[in-house]
């Protein structure tokens, strides 16, 4: 089965690269993800490009390089990172801390695992995230000047800081998320809190799958690097809550287009991380690992079953429990408003949805290579 997941992840990679990766402004040595397929003119010209989607494109490309190291894949990562810097115009950073955290994670992985020199970028992004910490409230805001402090910014920021050696700040971030955003009734992580208001009324109680993913990833990193029991216990509790409340027949539920196209893929990525690196110190650890792996593999099997085949390559659905729809040129396009990207009328058109599918299959490959499912 390990070989099957490798082949499926390879097909997902080929589909995204073939349909979406294009030269930036026709410049040689560049490559960036066109945000839709089929794309309209302004999308092909990268008027729309979505910083954090491109960060996940790099992260998926690093997954593929890990799975099957080749010089071509390595060059692709260098090309996308260079193009990201060019298209961003002002440097590596922007005003959104969640965006910068995702790019930092991707570039740091490429550097640590494959010696792709991203030192200046990683240092610039790490400094932004470290310096954003609120001494008064704890945590970091969603974007510069905001009083909205949320899991989508703090989770990936904590993961990056843990990996770059700022363990004390990563641990403080995990403690802040658990104390501030965890729903005591369900064990799941709320979206965020508007500070400067009444604590209860300031909470945004909506539950997004990727908030669970980033909290899980951060706690797993800390459990592996520090070993404090509270991080393992939080992993156990959160995996159980995800299994109970965010899955149907072991498959991660929901999903949409726009920014939401990445949410379930991010959860799958960090469930896979839990299955592979959570330390084995007791029955709770083994149960959490096995449950995380089961969800990843069931989700990947369902997404693969419900894909469309277009010229022999997969097109993934936004909802992994339902058959994918074929987008066309007449479909309404994704729009950017209020700091978020809203879905195309047919969500499968959005690069985010296809990246989410690719991310899921790379996660399935990772857990299958680690020996799951256990007999």
Characterise this structure.
The chain is mainly alpha-helical. The chain has one domain (2-325, 340-369): Glycosyltransferase. It has 14 helices and 11 strands. Strand 6 and strand 7 (251-252) form a beta hairpin. The protein starts with a helix and ends in a 6-residue tail after the last helix.
SS-based class: mainly alpha
Assign the CATH topology: Glycosyltransferase
Distance between the termini: 13 Å
State the strand order across the main sheet. 3-4-5
CATH C-level label: Mainly Alpha
Per DSSP, the total helix count is 14
Uncertain segments are: none
Task: Return the domain count.
Answer: 1
Average pLDDT reading: 95
CATH architecture: Alpha/alpha barrel
Q: What is the β-strand count?
A: 11
The backbone outline, from C-alpha atoms, is: globular
For the structure shown, list the relevant keywords.
375 residues; three-stranded antiparallel β-sheet; two-stranded antiparallel ribbon; globular; Glycosyltransferase; 14 helices
What is the fold's blueprint, element by element?
Elements: H1 2-20, E1 21-22, E2 32-33, H2 41-44, H3 51-67, H4 71-88, H5 97-114, H6 119-131, E3 148-150, H7 151-163, H8 167-181, E4 192-194, H9 199-202, E5 203-204, H10 209-225, H11 229-245, E6 247-248, E7 251-252, H12 263-277, H13 283-305, E8 308-310, E9 313-315, E10 335-337, E11 340-342, H14 351-369
Antiparallel strand pairs: 1-2, 3-4, 4-5, 6-7, 8-9, 10-11
């Amino acid at each position: 089965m390990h070989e099957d997941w490798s082949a499926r992840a390879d097909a997902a990679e080929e589909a995204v690269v073939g349909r979406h990766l294009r030269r930036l402004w026709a410049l040689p040595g560049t490559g960036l993800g066109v945000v839709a397929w089929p794309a309209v003119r302004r999308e092909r010209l990268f008027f729309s490009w979505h910083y954090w989607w491109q960060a996940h494109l790099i992260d998926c490309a690093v997954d593929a390089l890990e799975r099957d190291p080749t010089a071509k894949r390595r060059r692709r990562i260098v090309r996308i990172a260079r193009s990201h810097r060019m298209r961003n115009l002002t440097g590596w950073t922007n005003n959104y801390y969640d965006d910068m955290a995702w790019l930092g994670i991707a570039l740091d992985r490429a550097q640590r695992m494959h010696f792709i020199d991203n030192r200046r970028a990683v240092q610039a992004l790490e400094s932004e995230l470290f310096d954003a910490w609120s001494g008064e409230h704890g945590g970091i805001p969603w974007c510069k000047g905001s009083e909205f402090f949320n899991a989508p910014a703090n989770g990936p920021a904590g993961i990056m800081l843990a990996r770059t050696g700022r363990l004390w700040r990563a641990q403080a971030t995990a403690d802040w998320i658990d104390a501030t955003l965890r729903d005591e009734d369900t064990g799941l992580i709320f979206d965020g809190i508007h500070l400067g208001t009444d604590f209860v009324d300031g909470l945004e109680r909506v539950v997004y799958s990727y908030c669970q993913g980033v909290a899980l990833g951060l706690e797993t990193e800390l459990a592996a690097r520090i070993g404090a029991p509270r991080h393992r216990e939080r992993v156990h509790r959160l995996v159980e809550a995800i299994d109970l409340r965010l899955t149907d027949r072991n498959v991660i539920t929901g999903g949409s287009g726009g920014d939401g196209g990445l949410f379930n893929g991010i959860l799958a990525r960090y469930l896979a991380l839990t299955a592979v690196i959570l330390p084995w110190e007791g029955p709770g650890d083994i149960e959490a690992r096995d449950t995380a792996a089961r969800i990843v593999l069931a989700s990947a099997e369902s997404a693969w079953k419900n894909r469309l085949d277009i010229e022999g390559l997969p097109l993934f659905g936004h909802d992994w429990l339902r058959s994918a729809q074929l987008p066309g040129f007449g479909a309404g396009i994704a729009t950017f408003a209020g700091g978020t990207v809203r879905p195309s009328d047919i969500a499968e058109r959005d690069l985010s949805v296809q990246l989410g599918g690719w991310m899921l299959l790379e996660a399935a490959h990772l857990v299958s290579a680690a020996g799951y499912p256990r007999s």
